Amino acid sequence: MLPPALSDEQTVPFDDRGLAYGDGLFETVLLRAGKPVLWRYHTDRLAKGCQCLNIPLPCQATLDAAWQGDCTAELEVLKLILTRGSGGRGYAQPDEVTPRLLSRRTPFQPSIQRWQQGVTVRLCNLRLSRQPRLAGIKHLNRLENVLARQEWSDTAIAEGLLADSEGRVIEATSMNIFWLQAGQVFTPFVDQCGVAGTLRAGLIDQGVVALGALSLDRLAEVERLWVANSVQGVWPVTTLLAADGSLLQRWAVSESDPFQRLAHQLLGFV
Q1: Which residues are annotated as catalytic?
Q2: Which of 191, 263, 177, 249 is nearest to 220 (CA)?
Q3: How far is Cα 162 from Cα 180, in angstroms, rounded to an integer?
Q4: pTM over 0.85
C-alpha cells in the first residue's frame, strides 16, 4: 500500500521520476460538496495509465483518502499526481518501485458566462504526434499541449484546437472536442493520440456521443461545435479562427442545447 498522498506543500525529491522524466500520471477531479464527480471514470483511467506505464496502482482506499476530509467550498478541484517514485539510473527504473502520490484540492468556480455565451477557439499550428501506446491516458508528458498553448495570448480566445500529424482533429489543449453532424454528436477517436476525457467517457457510455473522424478541412462544415471537460463543463463554440487569426466559421448559441444539458446533468451542474 502506498503511504498517504503528499500535499502540495511537501517537497518532491530531486530524484523523483515524475519530475525528472514525466514518468507518471495525473487526474483532475471535480469535487461537489466534498464528493468526487465521475470518480469511477477517473480511477478507471488512472488504472489504465498505470497498466500502460507499468506503475503499481494505489489501492482504492488510498485514492479515496485524497478526497475525503473537510471541503473548503461547494465546488473544488482535486488534482492527483502519481509518479513512479524515486530512483533508478538514467531511464532504467529501480528494482523496487515505490510510487509517490501527491494531491491538492482548491476552490473552483466554473465559467457560467462561457456556458451561456459560447467561446472563440483557434486552430493551433502544432500537430500532435501519434503514439498508440500512450494514447488516451493522462500521462505527465504534456509538452505538446504546453507548446500549443503558447501560440496565443489573447484572452478572448478560450481554447486551441489540435490536429494530429495526419490532419485529423483530436482535442483542444485541455478539453475534448464534440461536434454535431446529421443529428448525431460525435467526438474524435483517441486511439493514436490525445486524452480520453472522463466526461467524454460518461457521455459515450450513455449513448449520447458516437466516435468519429473529422479532418481539419471539414471542421468548419460541422453544424455545431463544443469543447468540454469534467471540470469546466461544456462550452459551445461560436467562433472558429485559423492559426493566423482569420475567421473560418461562426455558429449561433442555442437557447436550448440538449447536449450541454445532458453533459451538465452528469456533472451535477443542472
Answers
A1: 28, 138, 171
A2: 249
A3: 18
A4: yes
Cell reading at 202: 460518461
Helix axes 39-53, 198-205, angle to 10 degrees: 110
**148 and 157 Cβ atoms separated by less than 8 Å:** no
Residues 211 and 189: beta-carbon distance below 8 Å? yes
Q: pLDDT-based confidence at 8, cuts 50/70/90? A: low
**What distance in Å separates the CA atoms of residue 115 and residue 4, rounded to the nearest whole number?**
37
pLDDT of amino acid 123: 98
What percent of the chain has pLDDT above 90?
A: 92
* Amino acid symbol at 166: E
70 DSSP 8-state letter: -
The cell numbers describing 26, all together, are: 495525473
In this predicted structure, the answer to whether residue 6 has a pLDDT above a threshold of 70 is: no
For residues 217-254, b (16+ Cβ closer than 10 Å) or e, as one string? eebeebebbbbbbbbbbbbbbbbbbeeeeeeeeebeee
Give the phi and the psi of residue 105 in degrees, each rounded to 5.
-125, 135
Q: Which helix (H) or strand (E) holds 261?
A: helix 258-267
Element (H, E) at 205: helix 198-205
Q: Is the separation of the CB atoms in 86 and 26 below 8 Å?
A: no
The 3-state DSSP class for residue 34 equals: coil
As a whole number of angstroms, the distance between CA 73 and CA 59 comes to: 27
Better-scored residue on pLDDT, 69 or 186? 186
